[in-house]
């Protein structure tokens, strides 16, 4: 694996290698000394053209816990805000001696362009590109599900599964703003690779063209999807109102109606199977796509997803940058 750009690029063996390595990384974080010397002397650059808190801090924490040096490069207040191109920025980072670049960009395909345009010769990790892909988010979601959904090789109860455990036969319902969601695309790709059965639920206005060709089922009715799929996990997606306003709005009549038709509130929470796990990639719009009761429920794994994100990103950096034979 040279880069980590797209969840669909990962074969089953590669996906499981990252997930199994993430479990090893998570185990090291229970030690009194959490820092590992694995990437000492390496320089990792966080190149963020879009605002982010969770993802940037998670990648930064992951790199620092592997003893890498981290340079945070934000578009705001930098030469990027003065019109410098992605190419010139990449050449600058190469000249600075960057060993890996983590990029987040509003344009779909920007990470792929950075990786293969020939401007730099280091691993590129996609931290989210437009409405296209967010592979480490899908990996941390899969890590969370593997720990809680019982099945062959999956003990449930939040414990680390056996090495090589898949999500074969698991049923996952992903609800909400599919149109603008790189998280949904990445999760459909990765969960399909891991053997899960995925159902997407959204109003027709929030489904992208071509979704019928994705490896999943599509429904417009959340109550029907819950009754039919009997999901092991339900993932509520943030309604990305900032992208909707730039496109003129009109994707649903009102927040109240959206919550009534597609929100996870008290009644739908009660209708979920007793072992169904609740996920959300964050940040949440409480009261819109998810109620406070659901967000804070005993089966909510939203905070755990954040912790697992650090472990997954540690695993990705380790697999891309560590020398052969390096011990954890």
Describe the fold and architecture.
It is a single chain. The chain contains twelve helices and nine strands. The model has no long low-confidence stretch (mean pLDDT 91). Helix content is 38%, strand content 13%. α2 crosses α12. By secondary structure, the protein is of the alpha/beta class.
Cα distance spanning the termini: 19 Å
The outline comes out as globular
- Rg calculated over all Cα atoms: 19 Å
Pattern of helices and strands: HEHEHEHEHEHEEHEHHHEHH
Widest sheet, order of strands: 7-6-5-8-9
β content, as a range?
5-15%
Which parts are unreliable, with pLDDT below 50 for 5 consecutive residues or more? none
How much helix is in the residues?
A: 25-40%
- H/I helix tally: 12
- The tally of strands reads 9
Biggest sheet descriptor: 5 strands, parallel
Instruction: Decide which structural class fits the backbone.
Output: alpha/beta
Arithmetic mean of pLDDT: 91
In short:
This protein has about 325 residues and is α/β, with parallel strands linked by helices. Helix content is about 40%, strand content about 15%.
Task: Label this structure with key terms.
single chain, 328 residues, alpha/beta, five-stranded parallel β-sheet, four-stranded parallel β-sheet, 38% helix
